[in-house]
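seq as requested:
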Amino acid sequence: MMSSNSGQNEISKSNKPAEVELPPHQLSHSTTSQPDSRVIHPPASSSARTPVQPSVPPGVLAVYNACSSIYKTQPNPLQVTAVRKYWLDGPDPLDYISMYENAGNESRHIPPHWHYVSLGLSDLHGDGRVHERSAADEASGYGFELTFRLKREPGETAPPTWPAVLMQALARYVFQSDNILQSGDHVSWHSPLDQTESRIQHMLMAEDAQLYPTQSPFGFVNFIQIVGVCTEELKAAQHWNGPGVLELLRNISSAGGPWLITDMRRGETIFDLDSSFQERLEQGVFVSTL
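struct tokens:
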């Protein structure tokens, strides 16, 4: 069981009893405090209509191609990138974070949102500069990239960049600990993810709703989605299990819905929105302790 001391940031594995606690200074690093540490620009296009630039690393191209299966009309999404890369002693492990505009699906009550996809936890280059070389049938780097779906606010014309800071912090944890984030893991953050007054102050990890495992020249890559949750939902994951809470979130469109979209303005927990969930939680806790 995890402690919930204020200011402590912890990551717990869904399939491991061990807990990992990260000193706050490792998690509070923000590239926004360093104006020259990142820029936003479109990546080299990987669409069939525009020749791929020779400089695009094969591992990057593999992630681009996975995303292009969803975002056929967005071959050049906005991107957050560290000017000084990790393999050049930069502070941020992720070379890039792509930001896509997703229209959602009105018939399924899936709202328009921004879809963030990291590049750097998998092996982008295959030359040993960041990750050990691996065979094609093994994990590429750590074997996954992070994603995040943020509900789009009315009138919002550009994606907020604070999720990139969050993803870099999680990536630093992975690089420093060699622990791989998996679906069902939960992260105690104890602070609004966007540094506002939001109740969304913690995270669960899930499989991305649209991006499926893909193959790169350097191994396979999964896509693990960050899902923002309230304190009560984190505690439910701690005492029950992460996958069970994710399933409850999927059942309520305003709490995440089928694609587990984070709404930083959400003020009610899943237990406020559906009182029957508390009974299901208690039954789940009972079953899990048998």
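The first helix runs from residue 24 to 27.
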